[in-house]
Design brief:
The protein has a single domain, classed as NAD(P)-binding Rossmann-like Domain (Rossmann fold, 3-Layer(aba) Sandwich). Helix 1 crosses helix 8 and helix 4 packs parallel to helix 6. The two termini are about 30 Å apart. The protein has 8 helices and 9 strands. The strands form 2 sheets. Strands 3-2-1-4-5-6-9 form a 7-stranded parallel β-sheet, with helices on both faces. A two-stranded parallel sheet has the order 7-8. It is of the alpha/beta class and about 260 residues long. It comes from Paenibacillus piri.
Length: about 260
């Protein structure tokens, strides 16, 4: 048994980012042709394109503003023109970055950016790409959420508000398109070890405040997040839909 994504095209928004780049590599390693969406990281997107092509995959890097429907539709048209068809796998990974602080200190623009990049990105991607999945009667729609959506800690308000809104969209979308053989799921990383940490040579000590709450007593890795995405994108997950899957070593546990 293995993850086989041959003959599939996967789009990852924020594909040149810290988590996105590992998703791109992993999906390509599983056999998928890949679309690397980026906003400003053009050079990194082109590097990933070359990496995927070296694996024998088709790859395409495309710039778009995922908070603007016109831009998302233009991205869709460019992908259609390049591949001659639209992706089978959509991964909504891009999100705006900002400084966390208290509700009283957080700027209103930060709440707006989170709503746009979490909720509206997902809505726009659905409007742009879901009709083709429905016509095909198959597909995978995967969103990257966060463990923070269950934690609700101080200073997380803008991020949590955006991600919890996104959660509602995904749960409803799963019910609306399930009859067409399309699965809609969310992956919720914990505090993840990525290239940013590797470049700094950073390794958290076991007594780190975050790790004291994690049953597995370590941080997850970007590869572990990408593994979950690849699984949900595959036929192995053909009857899993509407779920929120924490990948955080047990730090948060959805209850029945």
């Amino acid at each position: 048994m293995k993850i086989d994504l041959c003959d599939k095209i996967a789009l990852v928004t924020g594909g040149a980012g810290m988590l996105g780049r590992v998703m791109i590599r992993s999906l390509a390693a599983c056999g998928a042709d890949v679309v690397i969406h980026y906003n400003t990281k053009a050079e990194k997107a082109q590097q990933l394109k070359r990496e995927a092509e070296a694996m024998g995959r088709q790859a395409y890097a495309v710039q778009a503003d995922i908070t603007d429907l016109t831009s998302v539709l233009a991205m869709r048209d460019q992908i259609q023109e390049h591949f001659g068809k639209l992706p089978h796998i959509i991964v909504a990974n891009a999100v705006a970055q900002y400084k966390w602080t208290s509700i009283l200190e957080q700027q209103p623009a930060d709440y707006e950016s989170q709503f746009k990049t979490c909720v509206m990105q997902s809505v726009y991607l659905a409007k742009a790409f879901m009709p083709a999945l429905i016509e095909r009667r198959a597909g995978r729609f995967i969103g990257i959420n966060t463990e923070c959506a269950m934690q609700n800690f101080p200073t997380q308000s803008a991020y949590v508000a955006g991600k919890r809104g996104m959660d509602g969209v995904y749960r409803i979308l799963a019910k609306e398109v399930g009859e067409y053989g399309i699965t809609v799921n969310q992956v919720a990383p914990g505090w993840t070890f990525s290239d940013r940490d590797r470049e700094r040579g950073f390794a958290p000590p076991l007594e780190d405040g975050y790790l004291t709450t994690v049953p597995m007593k370590r941080r997850g890795t970007d590869q572990e997040i990408a593994n979950t995405v690849a699984f949900l994108a595959s036929d192995l997950a053909s009857f899993i839909s509407g779920v929120y899957i924490p990948v955080c070593g047990g730090n948060v546990m959805p209850a029945i």
